[in-house]
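Q: Convert this sequence to structure tokens.
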Amino acid sequence: MNRLLIASLDRFGPLRDGVRDSLMSCSQTVEHIEAGQRILAAGARSRLRLLARGLAVRQHILPDGGRQILGIATPGDLIDLSGLYVGADHEVQALGLCEVRKTTTQELRAMLKAHPNLLAALCRAVLTEARQQRIWMIGLGRRSALARTANLFCEVYWRQQVLNLAANGRCDFPALQADLADALGLSVVHIHRVLRALRDDGLASLRNGVLQINDWDGLASLGAFDAERLRPQQDLSELAAAPRPERA
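A:
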């Protein structure tokens, strides 16, 4: 069961053998969370919570009850990195049915103390998440409503496609129009108009929790989508120095 955790972290590695052994032997409990339920509360400490199935949103709830969605989490994402050394400054909520795996805070602290290589990988994961957050901010501030929505659809599809969870322009995206509005800084009425425009232009549609992209090139061009900005950050010098597997 811990192999998914190792694969997730190795994207920011490479991880050393000792780290892999520790991750393989650490405890993992499994939780199943229904759509709309909270996965991570603000203030929670990291327990290497790994989203194994489903989609979730990172969000901040305002004092008046308003909500700003900060990003989308897909399977393989560690969703509590903001709680590594301080309490998380936002919460995470399930979009659909989710499966989350987590270890204990004590085991995580012991592994970080014993393995600087693990800490380095987690730091690169945090930096990758921060870069994605800046891209999200640029979209909110400088893109039109159509471009924001197109970029989001491209991101959701691309991130699932690399996991073999999307094909032929279709993927799961159980988001309501209210979710899109809170993610893109728009009203529900405006989102309704944008979705209709994307559908009428033959670019994409969202219906019954399924995202259908009919014209990837057109949608990516409209949203100025750049997949390279979503890829995990790595230390190229460490990758070059890492031993290569022997050929049979």
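The chain has two domains: 3-137, 144-223.
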